[in-house]
Design goal:
2 domains; Retropepsin-like_bacterial; Aspartic_peptidase_AS; Cathepsin D, subunit A, domain 1; Conserved domain protein; Phage tail protein beta-alpha-beta fold; alpha+beta; 9-stranded mixed beta sheet; elongated; Peptidase_aspartic_dom_sf; about 15% helix
Length: about 230
């Protein structure tokens, strides 16, 4: 079954241990419990709960049909109405097919920043806006790393982010983790990419393209030609 964004976010936080981070997540209501509560409150029948994972329910707003659409964005389902405006039955049929990482076996030119390679990247957050950003290729970072000042620009709201901390050489730094809608580097792209937001003053302008994107591909960094080569797995 396809992993939900909540599950991928929890895995991202666990993976951040490679950066010395420790998640401090709070317990929250599961999607299954939220749907059962809504069914009881609004008097409809819900079927197919066995297709759900154990992900947390996201915050929703609007009328019942809008809230259900927001809650079940990663699932296929059918809503049956008994009369106009009244939902009688909700049937969850399956999880949606995951979006696979796509590549044209690309060789992307990099620019040098000291001993590091930089690439032009296009990030898409929850607001759906394509944001061009130059990132440092960093295979030592378990996830894509950005400054906190970019959270709002990418469309993240507080409820979309999970708090955590990063253990640095000198102290502990608070971070926030989320999921980008997509990341593109040249003709290569991947959907649902974990990202960690660090305080701006700790990054000092650095933005990292880590393994939450790079691991979607077979990757080679050609030092001689200054190329990042991404091949489809």
């Amino acid at each position: 079954m396809r992993k939900s964004k909540a599950q991928r976010l929890r895995e991202c936080l666990t993976g951040l241990l490679l950066l010395g981070t420790i998640p401090v997540a709070a317990e929250s209501e599961t999607l299954r419990a939220r749907l059962e509560s809504l069914a009881t409150e609004h008097g409809f029948v819900v079927e197919g709960l066995e297709h759900l994972g154990y992900e947390s329910a996201r915050d929703t707003a609007g009328d019942l049909s809008v809230r259900l659409r927001q809650l079940l964005e990663e699932y296929n389902y059918v809503i049956m109405t008994e009369k106009p405006g009244a939902i009688g039955r909700l049937v969850i049929t399956s999880a949606k097919t995951p979006t696979r990482a796509r590549s044209l076996n690309a060789a992307i030119k990099t620019t040098r920043l000291g001993s590091h390679h930089q690439v032009d990247t296009v990030l898409v957050g929850p607001n759906g806006v394509a944001l061009p950003v130059t990132l440092i290729v960093d295979t030592g970072a378990s996830t894509l790393v950005l400054p906190e000042s970019m959270m709002q620009e990418l469309g993240f709201t507080p409820e979309m982010l999970q708090p955590g901390v990063s253990q640095t050489a000198n102290d502990i730094v608070p971070i926030k983790a989320g999921i980008l809608e997509s990341v593109g580097v040249g003709p290569a792209s991947a959907a649902d990419v974990p990202v960690a937001f660090f305080p701006d003053d700790r990054l000092r302008g650095a933005k990292l393209l880590g393994m939450s994107f790079l691991s979607r591909f077979r990757m080679t960094l050609d030092e001689t030609e200054s190329e990042l080569i991404l091949l489809a797995r």
